User: Which sequence fits this backbone?
């Protein structure tokens, strides 16, 4: 199942990279000015996301995460939005600190991919999750709103 979801996320990203793969109603989505604006918007959303995780702000997380969110946690488990929300509300997933670095955001029409490094003091689904990670998030423009549709975390270093 995990392999299937990973392939789906990869295919979605590839489709948005291939010319014509993700059409936009807006003619200027490929312009460098609009790309810079989107990079800024996604960067701001990532900051909001980190603050929401730290503060257990379920209203902000509900707004940021798409209903069909796919999350691959540090142990390779596949979770959806409902699972994540339950873990945040119950305290099974909790963050003491999040430090991000090496943020890179690429825009592909009505989709964007952000990669970054994070250093966490945290637990996921009730298990220790502190450490350094490389994180990939995939964003989709839905109407006038960007939402996170996929997250994948991989531990780096030991």
Assistant:
């Amino acid at each position: 199942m995990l392999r299937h979801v990973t392939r789906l996320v990869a295919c979605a990203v590839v489709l948005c990279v291939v010319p014509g793969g993700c059409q936009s109603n807006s003619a200027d989505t490929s312009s460098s000015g609009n790309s810079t604006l989107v990079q800024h918007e996604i960067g701001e959303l990532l900051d909001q996301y980190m603050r929401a995780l730290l503060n257990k702000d379920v209203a902000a997380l509900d707004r940021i995460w798409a209903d069909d969110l796919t999350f691959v946690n540090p142990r390779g488990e596949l979770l959806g939005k409902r699972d994540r929300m339950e873990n945040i509300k119950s305290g099974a997933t909790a963050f003491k600190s999040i430090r991000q670095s090496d943020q890179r955001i690429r825009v592909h029409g009505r989709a964007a991919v952000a990669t970054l490094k994070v250093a966490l003091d945290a637990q996921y689904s009730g298990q220790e999750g502190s450490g350094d990670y490389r994180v990939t998030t995939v964003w989709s423009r839905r109407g006038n709103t960007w939402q996170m549709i996929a997250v994948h975390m991989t531990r780096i270093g030991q």
